[in-house]
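Fold it.
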Amino acid sequence: MAPSKSAYFEARKSDDRYDAVKAKAKGRMPAGLADTKAEALFNSDNYDSDGDGISNALERAFGGDSLSNDSRNTLPRPIKSKPSAYSDHEFITFIKYQDSFNTEGIEYIVETSYDLRTWDASGATEHNSENLEGGMKQVVYRSNQGRSDGHDTIFIRVRVKTK
């Protein structure tokens, strides 16, 4: 099945862990919340179903499992071992939808900053990628400029926008 928002939430419901994780999540919700509202919240993009600190939308965008604590493997992470030609650049890697499978139009915006206040969406370039199973791919981005270009520190991040 091609990845999509509806496929993601439907696959969760057929998972053996679904009911147990949902029951545990309901225990974290405000007391007296109606079952229909609790169910809707549990299956919403903004909720963190498994309590690992990552919303359902980010779990979906980065190929995570919203029914299991997988925060260490899901979020983008920096790359410390860099090619010598780019040793003073910053690198980040993450899993994303392959373009042909990104039917819901998730946007992955890789940005760089020198001060953590001003971010530049044109400050990074895809360095390489590798297609994975299930319509996902592992990508590596690098900052366009390095520290030798007059910047003591360069930060890199990825933002996700869903529709």
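The beta strands are 77-78, 91-97, 107-113, 124-131, 136-143, 155-161.
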